[in-house]
Input
Amino acid sequence: MIVLVVDGYNMIGDWPELRELKDYQLEEARNRLVEMMAEYQAYTGYRVIVVFDAYGVKGTEKKRKEHRVEVIFTKENETADERIEKLVNEVKNVMTKVYVATSDYTEQWTIFSKGALRKSARELLLEVREIHSEIKNDVEEHQTLQPKSKIPLSKDVLEAFEKWRRGGK
Output
């Protein structure tokens, strides 16, 4: 099994698309990151955990699952780095390979010393973009391989038939 632990705010601060959102739409930046990680998870089959730092925010740790991606907001007075280190200790074993996505140099060395492997924010972004491109190509290829009707039909009729085929009215 392969587990990818992602330092959420580190990716948001590094990836151009998310960095543009963070100052005025932080929630949207978080949601977009989780969506991107969901696509990554679906394509790779890896277990993906995204950790967001809630240091200085009152309350307990919050966990939720979005699109099969585990999302963790750290508890009060706990940094994302501390939570990531705990996660590495929890999931790392002989049968599990753990990657941590962060560009924090100190954190990279810490998790490396615990037996996890690192991915920089840039490396993960390149992988995400490559996966997105492969999915797009697969969809386009699938669409060109669809059998064409031998009877010429208008676009409206084809859309109506497709809607019926999918159970719509």
Notes: The radius of gyration is 20 Å. The mean pLDDT is 83.
